[in-house]
Batch of 2 targets.
Target 1
Amino acid sequence: MSEQIHNVVIVGSGPAGCTAAIYAARAGLSPVLVEGMEPGGQLTTTPEIGNWPGAFEMPSGFDLMQKLQQHARDLGTVFISDKVEKSSLKGKVKSLTLSSGQELKSRTVIICTGAAARYLGLPSEEQYKGKGVSACATCDGFFFRNKTVAVIGGGSAAFVEAIYLCGLCSKVYLVHRREGFRSEQVLVDKFKQFAESGKAQFVLNATVDEIKGDGNKVTALRLKVPEGIKELEVDGVFVAIGHNPATEVFSELQCDEGGYLKTGFGPETATSLEGVFAAGDCADHVYRQAITSAGQGCKAALDVEHYLQG
Ligand code: NAP
């Protein structure tokens, strides 16, 4: 495969990557898709997808991604289970080097690498990662059944995590640094219901000062609040304060100050280098929905088709 020059290599297997693959395959471009280390991306850890049009049975993110991947595979997309380590994107033929050492050459590349969970940056958070600190309730919530946990953040992700944990834990605190929420109101309202029943509690205007533990596991959260310092006894801390785009490996491309790939250099999904396109969360810090990522993946594949037609 290393000698071959592909029409299009897609990097990433979330909604953007899979949709790009479906469209590219149907256009006869024989796409190759490099899955990355978390096939399916962020969505695979979402317990329930309530806003994918038509999917009113609310599939899990994992199930939805399995279907999208299968769809792309059935149309002939070649999936490679590996990660891009190095890229050289200038010129007519692009080169991507994978962790295995394999080199992929392609006329075009669609980058759909998504974004990774952001952490608070406290040394104690680092110390207790995997020992009570997590950024994924669906992955780790199980370990905190009938225990007390705190979720940090005020966006939709924090509320989704907190609501999910209410079904498992004895008590869930939602700790947020101010009073207003970025989250969808419907999620806030659902969490409020748990708060009214005593199962959950808002802790607002509170910033995390330290995650305390006994060396082996988390025991408490030390918070800075307007009145001073406050401690919450907790067994687990779920950090849900947004994501960082996974774009470091594409350093030749122009990014904004947050590291998101800049697009719109000609066609909507075109990056700053000819023949390189981007879709989904790696290039979008505004919408960041599964459905908008899928839409951008579709646009990127159509932009590739036009580009290859000259
Ligand atoms: P987000 O909307 O950017 O929210 C991040 C939250 O973390 C904000 O409340 C922010 O506080 C807080 N935060 C950021 N840095 C912090 C720090 N250093 N310390 C303490 N708090 C900090 O991110 P998100 O919740 O991950 O959502 C991302 C996108 O995905 C959004 O567009 C969202 O709508 C979408 N999403 C949708 C669903 C759904 O089910 N519909 C689920 C998950 C995500 P401030 O508000 O004070 O800045």
Target 2
Amino acid sequence: MRIVFLGPPGAGKGTQAELAAARLKIPHISTGDMLRSAVARGTPAGKDAAEFMNAGKLVPDPVVLKMLEERLREPDARSGFILDGYPRNVEQAISLASLTQIDRVVFFSIDLGALEDRLVERRVCPQCQAVYNLKSNPPRVDLRCDRDGITLVQRPDDRREVVEARFKTYLEQTEPLVRHYQELKLLQTIRADGTPEAIAKEVTKVLD
Ligand code: ADP
């Protein structure tokens, strides 16, 4: 199964991709995670990417495509994968189609108005990557990870100004992919406005 998860920032794609990938025993490939790791390691690609990410813009297609190509060539991706965060515009969808066949696209449908707080209130553990929300899912002790006690941080692109830019980028460049994949008859739409458990059920329904 070669699967794409499509949807706006904050719709829960990453959380759901992690769960579904474990269940289906295929890798979860997140271009956002790959780019953040490149930024943290200070690689040339990471140096190129950081300014775009921190402005809520897309990293240039060739930079992301090169990373993705390398990742898809690894042996664990041969039997399938869940792609989270790629493609993000029509050009990327065309590049992806030339690399591999996609079997299904799951679109996380949710009103953008519901998402701003999710992102702005999100905090992550820099050590184990656990995700919290200061309002809806706060850590037990103020700003400390429940698992390892490390001080939580905010992703630089979760600041309100950047979140707004990410929504704009999404609407202009990524949302047109809904139509694109509908026309290719690959699209399965799920409601992404429930609890993580409810969304997980919807994902299972369209994938299993
Ligand atoms: P979200 O989907 O919540 O915005 P991601 O972690 O998927 O978060 O992406 C964070 C940032 O990484 C994006 O705003 C963008 O700058 C960059 N990025 C991730 N995937 C891509 C991609 N396929 N093409 C271009 N830029 C990307």
